[in-house]
Amino acid sequence: MTVLVISNQKGGVGKTTTAISLGAAFVAQGQRVLVVDLDPQANATSGLGVSKELPNAIYGVLLNERPLGDSIVPTAMEGLDLVPSGPDMAGAEVQLVPIMAREYRLRQALRDTHGYDTVLVDCPPSLGLLTVNALAAGDAVLIPVQCEYYALEGLAQLLSTIEAVRERLNDHLVLLAIVLTMEDRRNRLSLQVIDEVQRHFPDLVARSRIPRTVRLAEAPSHGLPISIYDPKSPATQAYNDLARELSQRLKARAPLAVRGAIA
Predict the structure, then answer these.
(1) Using one digit for the tens of pLDDT, what is the confidence trace for 8-43?
(2) Which of 45, 93, 240, 254 could bond to 84 as cystine, CB 3.0-4.6 Å?
(3) Which residues contact 75 (CB under 8 A, 6 or more apart)?
(4) pLDDT tens digit string along 167-206?
(5) Measured between alpha carbons, how far is 226 from 244 in angstroms, rounded to an integer?
(6) The 2-6 sheet, strands edge to edge
């Protein structure tokens, strides 16, 4: 089982859309996938058509040591399951502070989870304890970056956090890829951002880029991954391509070192 953490402390970069859409793409490849929604906003939960008010959610797993299996719910796509989030997660970071081994709560919960090929962890837009829990439990990190102005803002801080987690909490964590989202090939700024990110991280940027499409933006409101909502969408093909590329990178296990990326 591979635990893939989807993280960026900037909001609105496509983390949740990527978690949902990539999960569906992995399922299309024949995998069984679990999405863990760590974000108090619970957008991955609603985006997969699951209620934010379920009693057995990720909060109980992290704070009350409830077995993760008790919180797994199916989605509209067979083979794609979810551990939902909800409003009670708003105070989770504060409540985790005094708890022993607080950074390892998610890792411990995932040890008792079986039957999945990939776990995708959708992180909140912050570098707090919830994100640290995800990084401490993860095998690899995927960073979505939007093709817009300030795209690189905050990336150095995120990479430093990943490196700190590698050194102190999880020495096998690797930086897998940066995926460029919201690409608009008609927009000169979008093309400039792509060039800039590729110049800074030539070995890390995924070849597959996610286009900005109306259908992709609509899919979460219907509680469906884009591959079900619109199988012929360019975004569906883009996420299928990304899933294949990431699978190859995971098999090769030769991603760029975090320290090298910072340099």
Answers:
(1) 988 889 999 999 999 999 999 999 999 999 999 999
(2) 45
(3) 48, 49, 50, 81, 82
(4) 999 999 999 999 999 988 777 877 888 888 888 888 899 9
(5) 17
(6) 73-74, 80-83, 33-37, 118-122, 2-6, 140-146, 174-181
Q: Whole-angstrom Cα distance, residue 209 to residue 212? A: 10
Q: How many CA atoms lie within 13 A of 219 on its CB side?
A: 29
Determine the pLDDT at residue 254. 46
Q: Are 119 and 1 in contact (CB under 8 A)?
A: yes
pLDDT(232) > 90: yes
Compute the distance between CA of residue 31 and CA of residue 51 in angstroms, rounded to an integer: 25
Q: Which residue has the higher pLDDT, 252 or 210?
A: 210
Distance of CA 57 to the CA centre of its chain: 18
Give the 3-state secondary structure of residue 156: helix
User: 180 by DSSP, 3-state: which?
Assistant: strand
pTM for the whole thing? Answer: 0.92
Q: Other CB atoms closer than 10 Å to residue 196's CB: what's the count? A: 13
Q: Quickly name the fold that domain 2-262 has.
A: Rossmann fold (3.40.50)
Neighbour-count burial of 193, counting CB atoms closer than 10 A to its CB (0-12 exposed, 13-18 middle, 19+ buried)? buried
Q: What are the boundaries of each domain within the chain?
A: 2-262
CA 34 to chain centre: 11
Q: How far is the C-alpha of 206 from the C-alpha of 239, rounded, in Å?
A: 11
Spatial CB neighbours of 135, under 8 Å, sequence gap ≥ 6: 5, 7, 141, 161, 162, 165, 169, 170, 173
**Quick one: which of 194, 219, 172, 214 has its CA closest to 46?**
219
